[in-house]
């Protein structure tokens, strides 16, 4: 499988208003979002966004309502034109593509999954799923064969002839996911894709996405306002506030080292046992060659279960090849799950 292409967002600004380009320098010189609105009646949507979104991984962009996250994702397929900056896919700047190039990019390189499903009510599950391939001009027989595979993969086999109003919300979102995957696009854009679902169905859809990603290694940009969802899905997370990136990194980095009080408030109720890995807490100065073994990359919650099942107080931590790389104790595990880790 070819290595997936990442997305580089560089110095991206979006200012809504008739003279947006003239306002960019004012923002660069330090004018705030509220000042820009009060003095010039322009709205600062994105303020100097710089994010390297890794190829083949899930990049989560999160923030509260109005933070700019949905505006940002719509720049990747240029549903919104930037005021300034670059959106690079490989060596191509999406912001500089011609209309023909952009049309081809949208048809073949990107697919989008929406919060409100965006299914066509007069089309069956099958007809909704093949819609993108129809637009591309793929022969119907081939399109339906490809669609059938993904309909089955998302758990909807047998529902091909049902209409959207015959399906639950979770099932409708599975159709939306199948439609996106059938296009076989490199980039999957998911804007609050699971936010409208009930909590249990939402967890189920997160599991479906993670299972599929384990095989497909798509470049996924996932928008959410929910930190638990961000931590569960994201290989990397960027947190936005007022159109600017406040912090970005892995879930562990954000939970363990919040950069300001805003981020600290976000993460204070996080279940650390489901975020912090054993390798972060283990004593690297010691090794054990016998006894209970715990993989370095598992979460502390899983390590605690192993300690309970084995009835031991310490364990050897091993890397992927089975080599001892440290020692973990039950005391350190419990302490790290309830208090910040010192660095």
Describe this structure in words.
There is one protein chain. The chain is of the alpha/beta class and 343 residues long. Helix content is 40%, strand content 22%. The chain has 15 helices and 13 strands. The protein has helices spanning 20-28, 33-40, 69-76, 99-108, 125-129, 131-136, 140-153, 169-182, 199-216, 227-233, 251-256, 261-267, 278-281, 300-310, 330-338, and strands at 7-16, 43-53, 58-62, 84-89, 92-93, 110-114, 187-191, 219-224, 236-241, 244-249, 293-295, 314-318, 324-329. The strands form 3 sheets. It has a 6-stranded mixed sheet with strand order 6-7-8-3-9-10, sandwiched between helices. A 4-stranded antiparallel sheet has the order 2-1-4-5, with helices on both faces. It is globular. The model has no long low-confidence stretch (mean pLDDT 90).
Determine the N-to-C terminus distance: 39 Å
**N-to-C series of helices and strands:** EHHEEHEEHEHHHHEHEHEEHHHEHEEH
Name the shape in a single word: globular
Number of domains: 2
Number of strands: 13
Oligomer: single chain
CATH architecture of the largest domain: 3-Layer(aba) Sandwich
The helix-and-strand class reads alpha/beta
Contiguous helical run count: 15
What is the percent of helical residues? Answer: 25-40%
CATH class of the largest domain: Alpha Beta
- So, the CATH homologous superfamily of the largest domain? P-loop containing nucleotide triphosphate hydrolases
The main sheet orders its strands as 6-7-8-3-9-10
């Amino acid at each position: 499988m070819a290595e997936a292409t990442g997305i580089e967002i560089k110095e991206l600004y979006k200012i809504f208003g008739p003279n947006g380009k003239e306002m960019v320098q004012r923002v660069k010189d330090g004018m705030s979002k509220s000042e820009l609105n009060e003095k010039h009646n322009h709205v600062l949507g994105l303020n100097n966004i710089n994010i390297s979104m890794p190829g083949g991984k899930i990049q989560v962009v999160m923030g509260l309502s109005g933070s700019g996250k949905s505006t940002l994702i719509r720049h990747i397929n240029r549903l919104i034109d930037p005021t300034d900056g670059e959106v690079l896919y490989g060596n191509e700047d999406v912001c500089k593509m011609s209309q023909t190039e952009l049309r081809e990019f949208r048809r073949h390189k990107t697919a989008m999954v929406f919060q409100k499903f965006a299914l066509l009510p007069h089309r069956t599950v099958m007809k909704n799923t093949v819609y993108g391939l129809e637009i591309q001009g793929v022969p119907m027989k081939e399109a339906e064969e490809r669609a059938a595979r993904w309909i089955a993969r998302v758990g909807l086999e047998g529902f091909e002839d049902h209409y959207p109003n015959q399906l639950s919300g979770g099932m409708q979102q599975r159709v939306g996911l199948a439609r996106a995957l059938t296009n076989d696009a490199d980039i999957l854009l998911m804007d609050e894709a699971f936010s409208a679902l009930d909590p249990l169905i939402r967890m189920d859809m997160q599991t479906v996405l993670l299972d599929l990603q384990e095989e497909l290694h798509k470049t996924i940009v996932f928008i959410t306002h929910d930190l638990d969802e961000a931590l569960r899905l994201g290989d990397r997370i960027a947190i936005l506030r007022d159109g600017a990136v406040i912090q970005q990194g892995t879930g562990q980095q954000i939970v363990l080292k919040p950069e300001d009080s805003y981020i600290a408030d976000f993460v204070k109720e996080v279940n650390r046992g489901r975020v912090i890995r054993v390798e972060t807490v283990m004593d690297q100065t010691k090794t054990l060659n016998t006894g209970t073994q715990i993989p370095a990359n598992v979460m502390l919650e899983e390590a605690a279960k192993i300690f309970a099942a084995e009835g031991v107080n310490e364990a050897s931590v091993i890397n992927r090849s089975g080599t001892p790389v440290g020692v973990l104790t039950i005391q350190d595990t419990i302490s790290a799950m309830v208090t910040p880790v010192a660095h």
